[in-house]
Design goal:
heterodimer; A: Alpha-Beta Plaits; 4 domains; B: alpha/beta; ten-stranded mixed sheet; two-stranded antiparallel ribbon
């Protein structure tokens, strides 16, 4: 180490090994023909020895350039001493130059930013400079020598280590990382530079501290590219008070717990402590200490009651929070036990995740196959499949005069279930209904799930009486069943093949049959639900245009309107008060509602308000008809999005016409 | 003693016959009614479905029998559905072909106004040329203004431009109330009126100018606009104001002109300020702020600026900047008041670093006394940081503001109060007591002695000759030697007292009978009148007055939601419901708040009557009609006064919270005001027992006779007292009692007399009969002011209320009623026998004194004498018959008569129930009536003792199962 070491052809390490210190500085000398260039000449302490080494290689007057990658004293505080013995230009970035001048030298500058980050220092050799801003100075640069493919990286790729060796060994990556974690401001700054380096052809990296990397150069660059650094930064990105203070942070953690564990269990943790939770929301409503204390106590309580596993569950969230808000880790997180457990748990969870992902993938494949022909909810074959299947069956049956029967089974309570319990229960009900139907199914029959709350039940061979009996059996079994959350009923539309004997067994006949069955199930529903309809003539059922509910306490008005609407083919329900009217809206789901404003029990506006609360009902045609129509009542109507508000006496043709236009066009 | 046994027997037969005849009439009426209903249904079927398909001959055959019923049905149908043009034309052609219109027209000359009105309504719907010309002719002749309104309405319904000159000339020289309504009707002519405008736009009379101004507020045209502008600049202040308000309705941007904003007349200035708020732009706020210091425009400016703030939320920064910069303390306060609309906006910003401005504003708002938002926010809020900040502001203010302190202590959560080191404030209700009135008690004693001496005195005078002998005896010892003589006199006295009872009962019942006859006449008139009230007319703008329905509730948690539901769904164009929680000890208020999701609001109260303090007013925008008032306990009268203070309407309707109104009750009761030019001061509703009826969510679903016998007796009693009694009194305009359960009053008159009688009110007196007392005081006022007035009773505005089913509670109630009656009569003793109070002083008040207060004293003595006479065998057949006829049979007859009246138009009870009622009408006279008389006597005695207040009525609630 007493002599310069040639790290590549004509490129020498001219540094000093200081055994007392764990910081090593590495100045380099490049000799090209008659010229020499000194890179990061070093501090005043090491000046004598470095001078000795340089003069042993080259006469000092041949040194025309000295590169200062940045301005630190360990890099270039020796500059004035060199000046006394040689005449050179200082090659550096202008930002560095601004600082360097305080060392008190008088040499000229060669500012790389003004020369395209390039220095042609002999006829066939030029050096490139890589600007590495904020690593760890705005004007920091690295030097790349294209002919030797060495990158003089200055502080980058450096390291502090007790067991120094000029050449980087296997463990150098880790020592290098810890240096960067402390000295480099952040991954978002480090990463783009490393990305640039990865794009360059580098055979060796010669940093100013630490060891020279000549093996696995790429690996070292990648390691830095992915390194999270800037450990002293602890950036305060969010203001704690805006998020509701420590209470808010604690509530955030609690919220995460509620998503993971049983709410009662969580609430019970805090029973008897001075942290009070709201029994409704489960959020902290009161406590008796400062915010930071609350932050500690919350987790202490959880650890003491539930063990370390619960802490691990929110580790990521807490870590994020701690960083985001610049608060301390809670005491519970600081314990070392936690770290070990965390590691093993992490590994097992990783494993589990992989397994799950694998499983999902397989399921997906299966699903996509099935989706085309099966209903995902009930796992029965779906309508598309049914139509194809049924077409061939009908053709066959009509040709051979085989009498089969199709039952379309429609759930009556769709709206009320949706209103009372929500979509989830509705789906569950359909699932249970499909189960019940399969239980009721006889040997050769088939069940299909149609669009909407409808099932198709196909009996390939039966007489009319048998099919009616089957339909009635299904209807009563469903109505009596206790499987469902609430009593439910079905309306069944039935059609037998023999009704179509004599028709041309074309593709249409199957579709026609389905249509007729569908109309009949609608008829059954409109006649009061929980019925089987198997007889209606086709023309009759197509007449059924829609269901209209009239709510008015004036019976003569109802009678007149009813008579007029019924002659137009509508089915009409009525109620004399608002409360019953609301019940009918829920159970019968009429297509249009004609309501008076002044009604006993609940007035027209209250009815409208209740309707607006349901997304399925609010689209229904709603017409107000009243003697009461003044400015304030109109304002109220407008605010409730009522579009049709007639003053009595009404022109009958106008009201009926409106209903006809709206119901028949949609 | 001219009555012989035969005559007595004859009277007995006659009356029994009349009772049977009455029963027959009831049943006959009922059958007739059912037939008539069928007939009407038949006619409506014909009109709707078959009329156009029939030939004229067929039509004539059907309609000839019931032309009026046919027309009635036709008009009824017209109320809810307009027939097609073709059908309508056909019917009218048919009517004019057979000159039905000519026949109907004869009615317009009738002397009876109700008959005249009926013809007018019919003619308006027939709308032939003949009908129109008749109506026009009548409009010129008619003197009564309320009849004129019907004429105008009919002519407007016909809508022929040729009527316009007649319509306009009818306005000239009319009173104000008439002009308002008539104008509202006439402007509905719309473009037809506009086309005739050139004819009368130059008219000089004020009435026509007012019409044009009114018209300009509903019809948009350039020349009308110019007319308004010219009018505002004119000399007549009233017209200028009317024109300004029309202008601000139609053309607010014109009204917002600086010229008007700076007008000298404050009313015009305020209109201009309001208009500016509607058409506001960026400069408006700056322009209006100076008016915050103008005492006459201050309130309007505050509301207008608040409206801008609500409509354009972005202006909040401007307002708050203004607030913080403002140096003028007064202006600053006003700005804070405006900003208080958005107080929560500032409260949540207490989390920001720079929170001083917010704190300043909140402090200012609180010290203005506006604290409901803050209290509400604190009670709802869960964020501890905001809570602490806000509490520190609150603490700073309430430390030196007693009213606010109490407000916070009353309404803030316990937990928050603990944080403030405060305790909750419980309102301790003061005890209310009737004052012991010495002079009243002395008078009562005197009257009692007088009545007790009445029998002996009369006897002595009648038998002076023989009694003289006894008195002339020198010593009493001789008297004992001749005990037979004394016993003979005693026997004779008992018998004569029996005769006295016969006379008394007969006179009571005869006066009742007289009332019944008045009632019958009144009923007939009201039936006519109600038949002509067409709903489309009633719902026209400005025809019916606005009403505040106010129901005081004290410990009514069992019924309150049902009652409120029923009262919120009345059929009436313009009313509000004020529920007053009179410091209930139960959950009454919380039930209401939970059910209607009410929020406490700041509500301006024009406190014209003194009441116990109002603690809070609650509202919810989804129920715009509902206002709930919470106040410290002060009794029913005090609560009603609070209701009057809060009311924003023209009329005030006081009802019991435990009563149910039929949906159209309000319409029916208010129509009593329509058919009279005299000022309608008050109307009473018809009270019926709800016991036994089915009620669901405040709607009477099935009317049934009560199951309980006591309640059934009271049903008969109520029918008699209300329909036969009060209707009769009302007919001769002497009605002095309107039940507190359902009565409608003119609000300004109530305020004028000082509201209901309470100890905190003007007259410093409490009474248990506040409902009757108010009517007496109103009548006195009108009499003293010599203004023509009408206090009426509505036979068909039904209010259903729970009646006591136990003897104890019933006796309490009657005791209270009687004490109330005595109290009021004594309080208003000046009126008694005073001819300057007219029939009230000469008939109704003396009636109450003689038959209601003193009568029972005689009656009960009489029953005692009958008992003694019966024991000693002193009653002969003639006396027995006379006693039976006078005390029982006449009573039965009157009850049956009242049933006839009750059942005449109201289809209340089923046939079976009617039979039951007749049975009870008979049974009632065998004990129940006598018991009631007995309670009146005990009531008399308790009036002489220390006052004992109201007593309690335990409510079962409508939903509770009725005992079988």
């Amino acid at each position: 180490m007493k002599k310069p070491i040639e790290i590549s052809k004509n490129i020498y390490w001219v540094g000093v090994y200081d055994q007392e210190s764990n910081i090593q500085c590495n100045p380099y000398l490049i000799i090209d023909g008659e010229q020499g260039i000194l890179i990061d000449p070093g501090s005043t302490i090491s000046f004598e020895e470095t001078l000795e080494k340089v003069t042993s290689l080259i006469s000092l007057d041949k040194i025309r350039h000295v590169v200062c990658c940045h301005q630190d004293p360990d890099v270039c505080s020796s500059l004035p001493l060199w000046e006394k013995r040689a005449e050179f230009e200082i090659v550096t970035h202008w930002r560095t130059a601004v600082i360097i001048k305080y060392y008190g030298h008088h040499s000229q500058y060669y500012l790389v930013n003004e020369h395209g980050y390039k220095l042609d220092f002999s006829q066939n050799r030029s050096l490139h400079f890589v600007h590495t801003p904020y690593l760890h100075f705005p004007g920091a640069v690295g030097v790349y020598d294209p002919s030797s493919r060495i990158f003089f990286s200055s502080d980058l790729f450096g390291a502090f280590s007790e067991n120094w060796d000029l050449w980087a060994g296997e463990n150098y990556i880790e020592t290098m990382k810890s240096f960067h974690e402390n000295y480099m401001p952040g991954n978002e700054i480090l990463r783009p530079v490393m990305e640039v380096l990865l794009g360059m052809d580098i055979s060796m990296i010669a940093p100013q501290h630490g060891s020279i990397i000549r093996e696995n150069v790429r690996g070292h660059i990648e390691a830095l590219r992915d390194l999270e650094c800037g450990s002293f930064l602890n950036p305060i990105k969010k203001e704690i008070s805006k998020s509701g203070g420590f209470t808010g942070l604690c509530n955030m953690v609690l919220k995460r717990y509620y998503s993971l564990y049983n709410k009662l269990e969580i609430v019970s943790i805090f029973e008897g402590s001075d942290i009070k939770l709201d029994p409704q929301t489960g959020m902290i409503v009161d406590f008796n200490c400062t915010g930071t204390e609350l932050w500690d106590r919350l987790f202490d309580r959880i650890v003491s009651q539930k063990g370390i596993g619960w802490i691990a569950a929110v580790e990521m969230l807490v870590e994020k929070t701690v960083k985001e808000y610049g608060v301390d880790y809670p005491n519970a997180f600081k314990s070392t036990i936690f770290n070990v457990e965390k590691l093993s748990e992490q590994l097992s969870q990783e494993n589990k995740r992989l397994k799950e992902a694998n499983e999902r993938l397989q399921n997906n494949l299966k699903e996509t196959e099935e989706k085309l022909i099966r209903c995902p909810l009930t796992n029965l074959h779906n309508e598309t499949f049914f139509q194809q299947y049924f077409q061939s069956e009908v053709q066959d049956a009509l040709l051979n005069h085989r009498n089969g029967s199709l039952l379309l089974i429609e759930l009556d309570n769709l709206t009320s279930l949706d209103l009372r319990y929500g979509k989830k229960v509705l789906n569950e009900t359909l699932k249970i209904l499909s189960y019940l139907l399969s239980e009721l199914k006889l040997g050769q029959d088939y069940i299909f799930k149609m669009e909407g709350p409808v099932f198709a039940y196909y009996i390939p061979e039966c007489s009319f009486e048998e099919s009616v009996a089957a339909a009635e059996r299904i209807r009563t079994s469903v109505a009596e069943s206790d499987l469902f959350i609430d009593k439910i009923t079905v309306s069944i539309g039935q059609i037998n093949f023999n009704e179509f004997y004599g028709e041309d067994p074309s593709q249409n006949s199957a579709l026609k049959m389905i249509d007729v069955a569908r109309l009949r199930s609608k008829t059954a529903k409109s006649k009061g639900a929980n019925l089987v309809c198997s007889q209606s003539s086709i023309s009759e059922s197509s007449h059924l245009q829609g269901k209209i509910l009239i709510i008015d306490s004036d019976s003569s008005f109802i009678n007149i309107l009813k008579a007029s609407l019924e002659t137009d083919g509508f089915s009409v329900l009525h109620s004399f008060d608002g409360e019953t009217g609301l019940g009918l809206i829920e159970s019968e789901s009429p297509d249009a509602i004609v309501a008076e404003v002044m009604l006993p029990k609940a007035d027209g506006f209250i009815i409208r308000e209740k309707i607006m609360a349901s997304s399925t009902l609010k689209k229904k045609l709603f017409i107000l008809v009243s003697h009461q129509k003044n400015e304030s009542s109109i304002k109220r109507a407008v605010s409730l999005k009522i579009e049709h508000y007639f003053r009595k006496p009404i022109v009958l043709a106008e009201l009926v016409g409106l209903i006809k236009n709206r119901l028949l066009s949609s | 003693m001219a009555i012989t046994f035969e005559i007595a027997l004859f009277i007995l037969y006659c009356l029994t016959g009349m009772c049977l005849f009455g029963t027959f009439v009831i049943i006959w009426n009922k059958m007739l009614f059912t037939r008539k209903q069928k007939m009407l249904d038949y006619y409506s079927d014909i009109i709707l479905n078959r009329f156009t398909k029939m030939s004229d001959e067929q039509r004539l055959l059907i309609i000839k029998k019931g032309m009026r019923d046919f027309l009635y049905r036709f008009i009824e149908l017209n109320q809810s559905i307009q027939l097609g043009l073709q059908e309508q034309k056909e019917i009218i052609r048919f009517i004019s072909k057979y000159q039905f219109d000519v026949k109907i027209s004869k009615g317009v000359r009738s002397l009876r106004r109700s008959k005249r009105i009926e013809s007018i309504v019919y003619l308006g719907n027939i709308s032939t040329d003949y009908a129109r010309m008749t109506l026009e002719k009548e409009l010129k002749r008619e003197k009564a203004f309320y009849v004129k309104l019907y004429l105008i309405n009919s002519l407007v319904e016909i809508g022929d431009s040729r009527s316009i000159p007649v319509l306009i000339s009818s306005l000239i020289g009319s009173p104000d109330w008439f002009l308002k309504k008539a104008n509202a009707l006439i402007v509905a002519l719309g473009h037809r009126l506009y086309q005739s405008l050139p004819v009368f736009i130059q008219h000089k009379s004020i009435e026509v100018k007012r019409l044009i101004i009114h018209f300009a507020s509903v019809y948009t045209a350039d020349d009308l606009k110019q007319y308004l502008v010219a009018m505002i600049d004119g000399d007549n202040e009233e017209l200028a104001l009317a024109a300004a308000s029309s202008l601000s309705i139609q053309y607010p941007h014109l009204m917002a002109d600086t010229r008007y904003v700076n007008a000298v007349d404050a009313r015009i200035r305020n209109l201009a300020i309001e208009a500016s708020a509607i058409v506001s732009d960026s400069s408006t706020i700056e322009r209006l702020i100076p008016f915050l210091n103008d005492p006459e425009s201050q309130q309007t400016t505050i509301t207008s600026l608040s409206r801008i703030l609500t409509a354009k939320p972005a202006t909040i920064h401007f307002f708050s900047e203004r607030f913080h910069q403002e140096k003028d303390q007064k202006l600053r306060k006003r700005l804070a008041q405006i900003l208080s609309v958005k107080l929560e906006f500032f409260i949540v910003r207490l989390l920001e670093r720079d929170r001083d401005p917010q704190k300043k504003l909140i402090k200012e708002v609180l010290s203005l006394g506006i604290c409901n938002e803050v209290i509400g926010f604190l009670n709802r809020n869960t964020n501890i940081e905001i809570e602490n900040e806000l509490l520190s502001v609150v603490k700073g203010v309430i430390d030196h503001n007693e009213t606010l302190l109490i407000e916070f202590r009353t309404y803030l959560d316990q937990r928050l109060l603990r944080k403030l080191n405060l305790t909750s404030f419980d309102i301790i209700a003061e005890k209310r007591e009737e004052k012991l009135e010495k002079s009243k008690i002395i008078t009562l004693y005197c009257l009692l002695i007088l009545i007790l001496l009445l029998g002996p005195t009369v006897y002595t005078l009648m038998n002076w000759d023989s009694v003289k002998n006894i008195i002339n005896q020198d010593s009493l010892t001789r008297l004992f030697q001749q005990p037979g003589l004394v016993i003979g006199h005693l026997k004779a006295y008992v018998v004569q007292f029996n005769y006295l009872l016969v006379y008394y009962s007969t006179s009571v019942n005869l006066s009742y009978l007289l009332l019944c006859i008045f009632s019958f006449l009144g009923l007939r008139k009201q039936i006519w009148e109600w038949r002509t009230k067409k709903i489309s007319y009633l719902f026209k703008k400005d025809i019916l007055p606005s009403i505040s329905v106010s129901a005081p509730a004290f410990n009514e948690e069992a019924n309150i939601i049902e009652s409120a539901n029923s009262l919120l769904n009345l059929s009436y164009p313009n009313y509000e419901l004020i529920l007053v929680n009179d410091g209930s000890k139960d959950q009454t208020l919380n039930r209401l708040i939970d059910y209607y999701q009410l929020e406490k609001v700041d509500y301006t109260i024009d406190g014209q009557l003194n009441t116990k303090p109002v603690l809070g007013i609650y509202k919810n925008d989804s129920f715009p009609k509902l206002v709930v008032v919470n106040k410290t306990n002060g009794g029913k009268a005090d609560s009603l006064n609070a209701g009057i203070n809060i009311s924003k309407m023209d009329y005030f309707c006081g009802i019991d919270a435990d009563s149910l109104l039929e949906p159209d009750a309000l319409l029916k009761i208010v129509t009593q005001f329509l058919d009279s030019d005299a000022e309608g001061v008050a109307v009473g509703g018809n009270i019926l027992p709800i016991n036994g009826c089915d009620v669901d969510k405040g709607m009477l679903t099935k009317i049934r006779l009560p199951k309980n016998h006591l309640a059934r007796f009271q049903t008969i009693e109520y029918l008699r007292a209300f329909l036969a009694g009060r209707l009769g009194w009302a007919y001769i305009n002497c009605l002095l009692i309107i039940s507190g359960a359902f009565g409608l009053f003119k609000k300004d008159r109530i305020i004028q007399v000082g509201g209901y009688l309470t100890s905190s009110g003007k007259l410093k007196k409490d009474t248990v009969g506040e409902d009757m007392e108010l009517v007496v005081r109103l009548s006195r006022l009108m009499k003293e002011k010599k203004t023509a007035y009408k206090i009426n009773y509505s036979y068909n505005a039904n209010c259903w209320t729970e009646v006591p089913e136990s003897l104890k509670i019933l006796s309490n109630q009657r005791d209270r009623w009687h004490r109330g009656l005595i109290d009021i009569l004594f309080f208003h003793r000046k009126i008694l026998f005073n001819p300057s109070y007219g029939s009230m002083g000469l008939f109704s008040m003396p009636y109450f004194l003689i038959f209601e207060i003193l009568g029972p004293l005689i009656e009960v003595q009489g029953y005692l004498m009958v008992l003694i006479a019966a024991i000693f065998g002193l009653i002969n057949a003639k006396l027995a018959i006379l006693l039976f006829v006078s005390t029982i049979l006449m009573g039965v007859f009157i009850s049956i008569f009242s049933l006839i009246i009750a059942e005449k138009e109201n289809e209340i009870f089923t046939m079976r129930e009617v039979f039951l009622m007749i049975a009870y009408a008979v049974l009632e006279n065998l004990g129940f009536r006598q018991t009631i008389s007995f309670w009146r006597v005990t009531g008399y005695f308790s009036a002489m003792k220390k006052p004992k207040g109201w007593g309690t009525m335990v409510r079962k609630g409508f939903g509770a199962p009725k005992p079988g």
